[in-house]
Amino acid sequence: MKIGIPKEIKNNENRVGATPAGVKELVGHGHTVYVQATAGEGSGFADEEYRKAGAEILPTIEDVYATAEMIIKVKEPIEPEYKLIRKDQVLFTYFHFASERALLDAMLESGAVCIAYETVTDRDHRLPLLIPMSEVAGRMSIQEGARFLEKPQGGRGVLLGGVPGVNPAKVLVLGAGVVGRNAALMAAGLGADVTITDVNLNTLRHCAETMPRNVKTLYSSRHNIEQQLPDTDLVIGSVLVPGAKAPHLVTRDMVSLMRPGSVMVDVAIDQGGCFETSHPTTHSEPTFEVDGVIQYAVANIPGAVPYTSTLALTNATLPYALRIADMGWRKACEKDPGLAEGVNVVDGKITYKAVADAFDLEYTPLAL
N or C terminus of the chain: which is more exposed, having fewer CB within 10 Å? Predict the structure, then answer.
């Protein structure tokens, strides 16, 4: 199969769809890999490393899309790429369709096969291609939250861990999934007073048994969240409903309960955000204010640490990419129902129910 790896063009997205080691594996399976010139530079991988791995370097993004039967990316295509995508071309990347109608419409019109990293499942019903970036984003959410709590960044001037004689910051983590648990561990490691919430009592029990002693658990309800907000310095929103829009756990009126200079980090922004006031931001302009509260809603948080992120992502995606390339997407999905869960759009039809439901559009089961 002819596989293309274009350079990411989303704002400050420095990750790349595959490392040179990943390319070497694909080439070793008999596939031809085309990498756009400088695609890996942001992650620390030079064109020469890709050449040594067996890739052909193409000068432009147009060349890559025109040549490849399958595109391996990191982030969803953005508008300049829409016209480059053609019928029956396989796109293997993050899509997050439920939060972006224009993207969905463009992919439906293209007739392409869109396999979304974020809805692929494994035998244990986990999300193996979302987990590594969720781990990065969860840890980064605390790093970024701590930064914007600093006074020069507009924050209250609070140190997460405090010092002897001064209380640590209070951190509220909404959702105890992969993002939430990683955020809680990072905040706890810095010495913060952490509360993690969820609606699954078994998950909360697990957190209570395994988290450090400065992490408390709390059932997630509007009442409980409202009770926490006035004293909270940093809120991490990390709720995920696979493939669907995130629920708004913090409404517009609830934001005003927080003190000026407090910080909210919405890691769920890829799926529409779990704060009602959220809108996507970029690494170049990461924050905005609502009632004096700083809100951070960067839609590609792991793009800030591209070397780590690209290695982690390729480790997870490469086995699936090999299966798709070796067998073709149809046979690969027949063999692996979890991979089939990743197929969101085929030939102008929506094949993932949560995406169709998000916009009240027709759903067509993949089997049809």
Answer: C
